[in-house]
Amino acid sequence: MLERIKQSETKKLEAYLRSRSDDLSYEVLSKVQLILSDVRQHGDEAIIRYTKAFDGIELTSLRVSDEALNEWAAAADEAFKEAMTKAKDNIIAFHEAQKQNNYLQQQSLGICLGQRVLPLERVGVYVPGGRAQYPSSVLMNVLPAKIAGVKRIVMITPPSKSGQLDPKIAYAAQLAGVDEVYLAGGAQGIAALAYGSETIPRVDKIVGPGNIYVAAAKKLVYGTVDIDMIAGPSEILVIADEGARADYTAADLLSQAEHDPMASAILVTTSSKLADQVCEELKRQSEQLPKQAIIAESLKAYGKLILCETLADCVEVANVIAPEHLELMVADPWALLGLVRNAGSVFLGYYTCESVGDYWGGTNHVLPTNGTARFASALSVDSFVKRSSFLYYSKEAIEAYGSKIVTLAESENLQAHANAVKVRM
Amino acid sequence: MLERIKQSETKKLEAYLRSRSDDLSYEVLSKVQLILSDVRQHGDEAIIRYTKAFDGIELTSLRVSDEALNEWAAAADEAFKEAMTKAKDNIIAFHEAQKQNNYLQQQSLGICLGQRVLPLERVGVYVPGGRAQYPSSVLMNVLPAKIAGVKRIVMITPPSKSGQLDPKIAYAAQLAGVDEVYLAGGAQGIAALAYGSETIPRVDKIVGPGNIYVAAAKKLVYGTVDIDMIAGPSEILVIADEGARADYTAADLLSQAEHDPMASAILVTTSSKLADQVCEELKRQSEQLPKQAIIAESLKAYGKLILCETLADCVEVANVIAPEHLELMVADPWALLGLVRNAGSVFLGYYTCESVGDYWGGTNHVLPTNGTARFASALSVDSFVKRSSFLYYSKEAIEAYGSKIVTLAESENLQAHANAVKVRM
């Protein structure tokens, strides 16, 4: 079930995986650009018009009332609610530690400088419509913003035929503390968040996944507002030693493969025996899974197996691939962690399957995909703050150091910069 | 010299200022896309070919030797070198405080989770060619990366007719600790950093300003590598009370206006007397400045004056504009700082002109421009790290909490996710 490649082919594999994320076509971008301009100009009316055209739904109001949200949320299953509530606690506990402090430094002559960490004021969370509904993502996107101190968190989601939200999504929105919910999806929804409409407030940052039109719209409004990232196809890389169980290993690879035909599952191991067993297990287990068609496609195209001499070699493979999820299914995972330079999130030991992090443990599941873990990070409290520096120089300080500043400004031929110092000396 | 507008027109002014940054045209983007593909495919040969075509220079080698860099740097002026060396110390002192720690949390049943902060491995710094050379920007871009722990910092800059680097740039590169310097500019240089060529290494992040082709190339390679930001036209907003001196105030407004006809200088004050005096001073001082033509253009289009009732009102104007630079030229600037929500960097009191921060104080001068201070931050040590989470669950922990994880995975119809937990229970 997994194509076997050589360790020396790792860089080729990296390039192949990266080719999964197509550039957005000019056709999509220019279509989306028109929608953005239209909503910017015509506000609510345009949003309602596009919703009718694309979704076949006639909206009379964009805003979801608190009463409606309460009612829908109440319909969610009790076991689900209980698990979500505890998952929320775990996510908060993990993310609280990410809060950064202001700092202030004092120097001679009264000089004082520092940095303040300020929350963004308004954040928009996009929640996709359709059959696949991910309430866990609502927690993952909203809770770090709450902890950062964002005062107004706005959720938008495409309306459904029934006019109602999925009860689980409604519950997650309430549990996470979303302040307002609007029925607007696609590029028109993103436009509303970026520019504001009569009903929907303009925000400072837009987070959350969406289809290709949402992705294109986010890319185009980036700069007017901030965005989280353009999520690409995701991957898991499992490093397993001879002590790893084949059934666990296979199950974890399958949990990634079921997401998407473009998802990638890679096994890197020192044990050729384990590799064989995992391939058998993949076959056996996937036959019992409802998404076996997606899994088959994903494994065929992007399921790979690499045998390495040593565990350190295995980690080097991971560092080149820079996977979104990295499992260290080895006897002593802590001995390897320090060698890992590029991975979105690392799952340690035989018992920590990726699902623990996806739903429960507290780490964020919005992770850098498709090799971007080389330079990007999980969604975090940092994603919802900005840092603003400040500087105070006294009269004495400017007199003491002014001539140096003049030297530097004049070396760049910026006489007005120099003059601002000179007039004070 | 400054057009007077009402406080109630602040939002209109914000929109007007934002309209300064044009979208990159499809023409530029598609031209740049071709260059990127060409360099990706043909490497050094394509870079050399474009350098000949665009700059009329025949390169025999892309790499600047250490000997050449030493020789050019030695030619820099002594007073400049001394001032740069002290500025470097100040920049390091300020940025050291931005280093973030790893963290680790322990819970019952042996559960362990946390976050590691890892430096990017390779960073590319773009330094524009042409007559305007900014050695201070080399320090501002490179030093935070050094402090973050980036091991390989690569500088690229377009070759000049003489074949030499400006001595000040060469000195700044050495002083900051740039590891390698290459002669490559424009979109072809950015392509080399994004994809790598035979000579120039592929990096994880590209920082530094450039012309429109550089900006377009950075936008297009974003995702393959990280980028700092697409710098837009910059601005200063000065809040002044009746105790502020008109000559200081005018000098500071002019220090922004001299940058660029698109730069904006805005005075917000409670004193109509000061406003009149500042306008006179602007006229008087600008007549003595070498860049008076640029200044006249900039002030005419984007020089504004807003009179407010109170200083708190003045700060509200600043919060809407979200200026790159905000000066609080008031008797008690610390009383206002807490009200400031949106500003790239804040300069406190009558003596702290923006130039202190541009060159000397230690805060970074690479700041969010054109209203993006609403959601973006100065370049910092944070810009050169990534955060990677980790999670460990014991056998006992998965047995204790597994059923909750299964509930959540099944609520999203992700059976393979649920199964990865089930096989372990």
TrEMBL record, chains A, B:
Its cofactor is Zn(2+). Pathway: Amino-acid biosynthesis; L-histidine biosynthesis; L-histidine from 5-phospho-alpha-D-ribose 1-diphosphate: step 9/9. GO terms for cellular component: cytosol. InterPro entries: Ald_DH/histidinol_DH, Histidinol_DH_monofunct, Hstdl_DH. NAD(+) binds at Y126, Q188, N211. It comes from Dielma fastidiosa. Pfam families: Histidinol_dh (PF00815). HAMAP family: HisD (MF_01024). GO terms for biological process: L-histidine biosynthetic process. Gene3D superfamilies: 1.20.5.1300, Nitrogenase molybdenum iron protein domain. Keywords: Amino-acid biosynthesis, Histidine biosynthesis, Metal-binding, NAD, Oxidoreductase, Zinc. Binds 1 zinc ion per subunit. It comes from the Bacteria. Zn(2+) binds at Q256, H259, D358, H417. Substrate binds at S234, Q256, H259, H325, D358, E412, H417. The active site is at E324, H325. Its EC number is 1.1.1.23. Catalyzes the sequential NAD-dependent oxidations of L-histidinol to L-histidinaldehyde and then to L-histidine. It is an enzyme of class 1 (oxidoreductase). This is Histidinol dehydrogenase. Belongs to the histidinol dehydrogenase family.
